[in-house]
Automatic annotation (TrEMBL):
Superkingdom: Bacteria
Keyword Metal-binding tagged: yes
Subunit structure: Homodimer.
Protein residues bound to Mg(2+): 59, 121
Classification via InterPro entries: COD_ChbG_bac (IPR022948), Glyco_hydro/deAcase_b/a-brl (IPR011330), YdjC-like (IPR006879)
Family membership noted in the UniProt record: Belongs to the YdjC deacetylase family.
Name this polypeptide is given: Carbohydrate deacetylase
The keyword Repeat belongs to this UniProt entry's keyword annotation: no
Gene: chbG
Alphabetized Pfam families for the sequence: YdjC
Length: 247
């Protein structure tokens, strides 16, 4: 069984970036996805070049920070920032979403790094209005996408793109323990490939004031670098991979 442990929010801030890199160097994280519009993005690209073994994909966003595109009025509030996730689809126009996502992809490639895969902040690519856009980008750039098979329609679309057999998002909030991680590993053993999402980080002002999910990030980092967690994977003969290996 092949397992990807992907750290979301690379690029959010320097503290998040350093946490993800330590989870890769000293723990079980194999992959990360990068927010190209956030203040720590340039730093994240530098770290990615210093650690080429870490798979780095793009974390497309419509709900964090501000857009890169000059004119996407349906995606922003009066302050020019993205709408909150609960308000997004009351305003967002498909043409603006495609323009912004294309701009984010271009910004990633301009770093000189090729993304390993595509996913999205707050899973916006799971939405029926967004998924076709992401699938077009995946086809254009020949990239895998985080598993989005949450409905029959999505399962049909899955035939068009490379992804893992399973995606697990339960390592979060109150469930950030070695014991819970073990339960997650037990649920994926029958699959050929699986991705576990995580959010390891250290804390800085950007995380504490900008993210509603902050203190548990440090707990995630502790679990992901705990020798017991690595041993759980070894006992199950799981192979840690990146999205580069997804066919």
């Amino acid at each position: 069984m092949k397992l990807i442990v992907n750290a979301d929010d690379f690029g959010y801030s320097r503290a998040v970036n350093f946490g993800i890199i330590d989870a890769y160097k000293y723990g079980i994280v194999t992959s990360a996805t990068l927010l190209v519009n956030m203040p720590g993005a340039s730093h994240a690209f530098e770290l990615a070049k210093e650690h080429p073994g870490l798979g780095v994909g793009i974390h497309l966003t419509l709900t964090c920070g501000s857009p890169l595109s000059d004119h996407v009025p349906s995606l922003v509030n009066d302050q020019g920032e993205f709408h909150k996730k609960e308000d997004l689809f009351s305003y967002a126009q498909v043409s603006d979403i495609e323009r912004e996502f294309t701009c984010q992809m271009e910004r990633f490639f301009s770093s000189g790094i090729t993304p390993t895969h595509i996913d999205s902040h707050h899973h916006v690519h799971f939405h029926n209005a967004v998924l076709p856009i992401v699938l077009r980008l995946a086809e254009r750039y020949q990239l895998p996408v985080r598993n989005f098979t949450t409905s029959p329609v999505h399962k049909e679309n899955r035939k068009l793109v490379k992804t893992t057999d399973l995606f697990l998002s339960g390592f979060y909030g109150d469930h950030v323990t070695v014991e819970w991680f073990e339960k997650m590993l037990d649920t994926v053993e029958e699959a050929e490939t699986a991705e576990i999402m995580c959010h390891p980080a250290y804390l800085d002002a950007g995380v504490l004031t900008g993210s509603s999910y902050h203190l548990p990030r440090t707990k995630e980092l502790a679990v992901l670098t705990d020798p017991r967690t690595k041993e759980l994977i070894r006992e199950r003969n799981m192979e840690l991979i990146t999205f580069r290996e997804i066919e």
